[in-house]
Write a structure and sequence with these properties.
By secondary structure, the chain is an alpha/beta fold. Helix content is about 25%, strand content about 20%. The chain contains 14 helices and 19 strands.
Length: about 525
């Protein structure tokens, strides 16, 4: 049995001013053939699960082409046409095939196709015909659409956020596709899309309401005749019609059963819709809390182990006292994993103004990196750091400090990580210790704070700082929650802010709760 693998993975922030052009994909990774296996064989990503299934079930997984770039703005028509032109050509010419496996993200938007993932699946279906089994595995942040479900036989969504189960869910997708191709099962699926979305600050599956939604999804999967169930949180920074939550149920030959189970999950979640938003601390409030609650440095040997199912990430009571370790501030408005600029200075500006020391954060700033490289390790430099991408993420902040280290920015994470990746590249990176007692890791590539290896590789020990900024909401938790004295969400301005009233939507569904509190759902 020969099954091809292909996909475009992109989380599109339609409010971002940085386009996802072909060069952006080239910089992040356009992989062909065995390059795909080399990248993901020892990782924990969706494709790793496809590989595991191929080895265990004895089919030939044929790697065609996979393209990915970090979450930024809309995919250009040129990029989409060039990428799909090549990989769809491989799909047409490389057969015969027995089934197809797709690895997309699920929240992609191109200039021509607002529902890029739906169009991608439609095009694959057109190439291989109506009878071939097609499976896709999507990120939990996917804005899953009816066309995606219509044009595939198996649509499986990750169940953890931070994303610790992509390999497991990819493995299940592949197994169902293979069984369907052999005639052992007949998967039919239903998608239910109630008019609701969950704010980014409530998408952590380690706490309610998402913890309960996932538990309900898992329980529904035990229904006789049900092959799989999924809950997608959606991605609120894509201004598209399908933006919002979705539930998918796959049954063995019984569409009415799939429909009933999907509607049941959605209806039970709808009853808890008021819990999908929460007030988030301002910068000044967060800094006050961090200063007041910091206990002391955390011993390196005390870091908790993060289980692959995310159970070690359950949040303590908000009123619980902080333990030893840095106070980790989650910079919501500069959520790099959500398509932000990575160079927000809103927090840093107040830190410098207030003279707060023992502070650590990263900043995307190629210009400052070049200046530090030119000066050399040990040099004293005065820099205007950050705030250079646009006018939404603060202005450059002037600092004076010492260049402590310069690296190529490549590092490896062997432990649990958001998304299951192993190899990382922040580009040429520089550590600067300022005269004011702040440490800045300056990068020449937009890089999220999803693994501590990013810090360790350049000689920074985050456990020793009072305050650490993690640019994100959920994705940094596998790295930083185990060492944190406390985690505090900070509602900063930016293209991923928790204050959704700052965005003007033109294409989303109306009504959509909680933007319209009178939204109704019949279930």
């Amino acid at each position: 049995m020969r099954i091809p693998l292909l996909g475009i993975s992109h989380e599109t922030n339609t409010f971002s001013s940085v386009p996802a052009d072909y060069a952006a994909f080239e910089a992040s990774g356009i992989l062909r053939g065995e390059e795909i296996f080399d990248k993901f064989r020892d990782a924990s990503y969706t494709i790793s699960g496809y590989l595991q299934a191929a080895e265990e079930l004895g089919f030939e997984l044929v790697p065609l082409m996979y393209a990915v770039t970090g979450p930024i703005g809309t995919i250009t028509k040129d990029a989409y046409d060039r990428l799909t032109g090549e990989m769809f050509g491989m799909l047409r010419d490389g057969g015969p095939w027995d089934a197809v496996l797709i690895s997309n993200h699920g929240a992609a938007v191109s200039e021509e196709f607002p529902d890029m993932d739906g169009e991608f699946c439609r095009a694959v279906r057109e190439i291989v015909g109506p009878d071939m089994r097609v499976g896709v595995t999507l990120d939990m942040h996917g804005n899953v659409s009816e066309p995606v479900v219509e044009h595939t036989d198996v649509c499986v969504v990750w169940r953890t956020n931070p994303h610790l189960d992509p390999k497991v869910r990819g493995r299940k997708t592949a197994e169902m596709v293979v069984r369907a191709a052999k005639g052992e099962i007949d998967p039919v699926q239903w998608i239910e899309m109630p008019p609701m979305y969950v704010n980014i600050v409530k998408q952590f599956t380690g706490e309610d309401p998402m913890r309960s939604f996932v538990s309900d999804c898992v329980a529904a999967n035990e229904t006789p005749g049900i092959l799989d169930t999924s809950v997608a949180e959606g991605y609120p920074y894509s201004d598209v019609e399908e933006m919002g939550m979705a539930w998918v149920a796959i049954a063995d030959g019984d569409l009415e059963l799939a429909k009933s189970v999907a509607k049941g999950m959605a209806s039970r979640a709808w009853e808890r819709r008021a819990e999908l938003n929460v007030e988030v601390a301002s910068i000044s409030e967060a800094l006050d809390m961090a200063i007041a609650e910091y206990v002391g440095p955390r011993d390196l040997g005390d870091a908790d182990v993060v289980a692959t199912d995310g159970t070690a990430l359950s949040m303590p009571d908000e009123d619980a006292p902080a333990r030893e370790g840095p106070i980790v501030l989650m910079d919501v408005g500069d959520n790099i994993g959500g398509g932000s600029s990575a160079d927000s200075t809103h927090i840093l500006a107040q830190v410098v103004e207030r003279g707060i020391s023992g502070f650590l954060q990263t900043l995307y700033d190629p210009e400052s990196v070049d200046a530090c490289v030119a000066a050399g390790v040990g040099a004293t430099v005065t820099l205007d750091v950050g705030g250079k991408t646009d006018d939404m993420h603060g202005s450059p902040v002037r600092v004076t400090g010492t260049v402590r280290a310069i690296t190529d920015g490549q590092y490896e994470e062997l432990g649990a990580s958001h998304g299951g990746f192993r190899f990382y590249d922040s580009g040429v990176s520089v550590r600067v210790d300022t005269d004011g007692g702040q440490t800045l890791l300056l990068t020449s590539v937009r890089a999220g704070n999803t693994v501590r290896a990013q810090m360790y590789h350049i000689g920074i020990i985050p456990e020793r700082y009072r305050i650490v900024v993690a640019k994100g909401v959920v994705s940094p938790r596998p790295a930083y929650q185990p060492i944190a004295g406390k985690v505090i969400l900070v509602n900063t301005p930016g293209v991923t802010t928790a204050d959704m009233s700052t965005f003007t939507y033109h294409h989303r569904r109306v009504p959509l709760y909680p933007m319209e509190l009178d939204a109704a759902y019949g279930g």
